[in-house]
Amino acid sequence: METGIQIERLQQLDSRLPAFVDMLIAVVHDGASIGFLTPLSRAAAEQYWRSVPGDDVIVLIATVDGQLAGTVQIHLCSKPNGMHRAEIAKLIVHPQFRRRGIARLLMECAEQYAKQAERILLVLDTRDGDPSNTLYRSLGYIQAGQIPQFAISDTGILHATNLYYKLLQQPALWTMTTENDEQ
Fold this sequence. Notes:
- By secondary structure, this protein is of the alpha+beta class.
- It is 27% helix and 33% strand.
- It is built from 5 helices and 7 strands, in the order βααβββαβαββα.
- A 7-stranded mixed sheet has the order 1-2-3-4-5-7-6, with helices on both faces.
- The radius of gyration is 17 Å and the shape is globular.
């Protein structure tokens, strides 16, 4: 793993927006299956990034020598029956920074942030056959299933997606006080 990688929580896009746009376009044009098709315009990429920040979304970024190298999102479930879980989304590493351990480090940090948010279950999905499957399995994620014909590529091919989960701790009896309990 490369030294000099910095991971931080993104508070606001501000002047970094162009770097996020460039990275998203680069990974989509490099074949990543992250919800977009080529050609991805700057306007569409910018619109996406402007929509990401939110109260229930933690965005982590990786920088190398001050340059944006990668990102991952932790979507905290806000439903009353899901306050113990989160979804990992948009693990992205710029093509020029790949094979340096950045994705692994982002995932390890995402797990720590999820724990701090009192989440014990993480879920994610990724296209079948992508290298990310190997990464997730090496981090202890368990494949729970596969959905055929889930995502279409820019060539019109339908691809399956693999669903993964990881328990960050063994579940204890989850107790919550409800309005009915208080009566």
